[in-house]
Amino acid sequence: MPTDSTKQDITTDNKKVQDLQQNTEDSTGQFLTTNQGLRINDDQNSLKAGERGPSLLEDFILREKITHFDHERIPERVVHARGAGAHGVFKLNEDLSEFTKAGFLTDTLRETPVFVRFSTVAGSRGSSDLARDVRGFAVKFYTDEGNFDLVGNNIPVFFIQDSIKFPDLIHAVKPEPHNEIPQAASAHDTFWDYISNTPESAHMIMWLMSDRAIPRSLRMMEGFGVHSFRFVNEEGKSCFVKFHWKPKLGVHSVAWTEAQTISGKDPDFHRRDLWEAIENGNFPEWDFGVQIVPEEDEHKYEFDLLDSTKLIPEELVPVRRIGTMTLNRNTDNYFAETEQVAFHLGHVVPGIDFTNDPLLQGRLFSYTDTQLLRLGGPNFHEIPINRPIAPIHNNQRDGHMRQQINKSKTAHSPNGMSGGCPFQAGKMQGGFTSYPERIEASKIRGRSKSFFDHFSQAKLFLNSQSDPEKNHLTDALSFELGKVETLSVRERMLYFLAQIDEGLAGAVAYNVGMHVPKEVKTLLNQTKPADASDEEYASVVKEGSLDKSVALSMKNSPTDIIETRKIAILATDGVNAANIQAVKNALMAAGATCEVIAPKLGFIAGVDDTPVAVAKSLLTTASVFYDAVYVPGGTNSVATLEADPDAIHFLNEAFKHCKAIAFDADAMQVIKATYFGRKLPEDNSDETVLMEGIIMSDDASALATKFISAIAQHRFWEREKARKVPA
Ligand code: HDE
């Protein structure tokens, strides 16, 4: 929960907020004007030749208004088009000067302003938040030494090893070229055709088909820098580093059927959730973590640190949590901030440098290139959201939309006329020096043998999943391949999956009505160089040294917090209002939020006539927007809900999505009308927990205690086994 002092810091101490404020505009109490500052007395009627005559070309007010409107759109990002952004601060807890000289990672007294943009990858700007997809997790640190952008994802590995493949990957996943179908979905032929021919994507596919690709909230996702970067300290010593974001609220997902329903009922589900959490003062927080590998250990592992299809298991190199990022302020204007922000992993500060990861290297070119087009020219660094808090002085000049008025008579260097200014900073004055990595090599178009093993970490990921997570992965693959119409693509994918796990391939094959082929004609586009023999190729395909890695399963996420979870209270006239209050108080004290849902909006009357405000009606909301449901007692309320099909559907659906459900003992009648009510034990007079996650009591305080620990479990996935819930 935020303290008042945090709120104070946001507006007064944060240098980036002060900078942005200079560009904000507030129309409160102001006259309407043109863009030239001319006061307008009527912008609702165009200038006409007579009341019923034609509009006049002379009408500069009409022309300015419509011209600006005509040019309101800019090209959307070619990937990551749909995003949600927020401001915040990064606070360092541990001085990392042993490894890096970056000021914001060595000075524990410094608070660094940040702007974060979360995104989906494949969908267009207006697509649904809940698409099965990777999520972008891009953070701009406005440090005193310039901007550092950590442009990462919520998945620690990537589909491909070399950036030259990126346009093919994206063309394959985007809507198909002949008919622009489907929107924001990987479940179609071209994507799986590409994947089935790209064995290096095996590990990423396991993550993408896992529930990581359908997060419960942007606030409940991990973030990863993906590539290995370099740290460089004051002495010039370097080490490798992988960056991590660990959410304080744990890592949680929704169910796939739930995701599909949410996409229709509220495509802004994630955006809204982030916005509301920040508006309500529930500031999302992540620990910032680093995995550090000394330079000497570069070749110690069975995978190559430069291969972005591999992660470093946390058992081999633990994640050191060194700081915390808190998102504490929503944007004032979506376009000016979230849409115009331009991230680039080439934005680094002294102490952070690149590695030769071929995926990273291509990205160093792409981001500025794409932003030149998207933001209309070379001056997008002057847009307020992109401006560093560190001053900018150089000889770059002019271009579209230049804001800066450079006063100097010179725009060249070296110069004598301006006393050599702006002058180059030496190392001692904080100038950036590239790490002098020694490279002696022949030019080749190819890849190191250490990049050849595509399946060991895919197996490691699969083996590390709990049974429900494995089931979801099988379901997701069956769904996606079930949507593939070209049978040879399905077949090649089944063969591909068998390289990861025969059981998985067999289960998917069964669901799509096929057999796993013993071999397929060709797996095209192997990364094996043409001149490498099969034996040579096979020799580098090693088993991972670990069977399982704890951090890879969401099951191991914390299960003792219910902060910010949303609880539905189903009620209507005649409800036991005192119980609502008691349970609500307990849930809210644990940090959850509660909403009373009734057949219609307005107020309902409690059994003792206490008025209870209704937040949503059964018509305007659905169980998929909540993490748990409570049904209080009260004779009339219970009788009405029992006969209301929407209320029964709400409960069945919550059950189907494995959520915690609690009810007063005298609300049993409503529960009996549900699908799962009939499955509850008959003799339940003394029980509080009737079935995992189903809690009944006539004592509100006992009920609340059990309910809170059930909600903290997130979901009771075991329930899915039956697969018969009619909701
Ligand atoms: Fe990106 N990526 N990417 N990407 N990426 C873009 O930049 C690109 C990759 C990521 O919220 C684009 O301004 C290439 C990996 C995020 O504004 C573009 C390659 C990772 C965002 C681009 C990659 C990312 C982008 C599109 C292969 C995770 C959204 C618009 C080498 C580590 C940033 C833009 C935002 C956006 C290119 C691969 C993350 C086209 C060529 C790996 C979070 O420049």
Overview of the molecule:
The chain is globular and about 95 Å long. It starts with a helix and ends in a 15-residue tail after the last helix. It has 20 helices and 19 strands. It folds into 3 domains: 83-189 and 217-382, Catalase HpII,  Chain A, domain 1 (Beta Barrel), CATH 2.40.180; 452-555, Up-down Bundle (Hemocyanin, N-terminal domain), CATH 1.20.1370; 559-723, Class I glutamine amidotransferase (GATase) domain (Rossmann fold, 3-Layer(aba) Sandwich). The protein has 727 residues and is of the alpha+beta class. Strand 11 (566-570), helix 16 (577-589) and strand 12 (593-598) form a beta-alpha-beta unit. The strands form 3 sheets. Strands 1, 2, 3, 4, 5, 6, 7, 8, 9 and 10 form a 10-stranded antiparallel beta sheet that branches. Strands 15-12-11-16-17-19-18 form a 7-stranded mixed beta sheet, sandwiched between helices. Strands 13-14 form a two-stranded antiparallel sheet. The protein binds CIS-heme D hydroxychlorin gamma-spirolactone 17R, 18S (HDE). CIS-heme D hydroxychlorin gamma-spirolactone 17R, 18S is lined by residues 77-80, 83, 117, 119, 136, 138, 151-153, 158, 163, 166, 226, 343, 359, 362-363, 366-367, 370-371.
Number of domains: 3
DSSP summary, beta strand count: 19
CATH superfamily of the largest domain: Catalase core domain
CATH architecture level-2 label of the largest domain: Beta Barrel
CATH class of the largest domain: Mainly Beta
Largest sheet properties: 10 strands, antiparallel
User: How widely separated are the two ends?
Assistant: 36 Å
Helix content class: 25-40%
Which structural category fits the helices and strands? alpha+beta
Radius of gyration over all CA atoms, rounded: 29 Å
Proportion of beta-strand residues: 15-25%
The ligands found in this model are:
CIS-heme D hydroxychlorin gamma-spirolactone 17R, 18S
CATH topology of the largest domain: Catalase HpII,  Chain A, domain 1
The coarse overall form would be globular
Discrete helix count: 20
Unreliable stretches: 1-9
**Quick check: average pLDDT?**
93
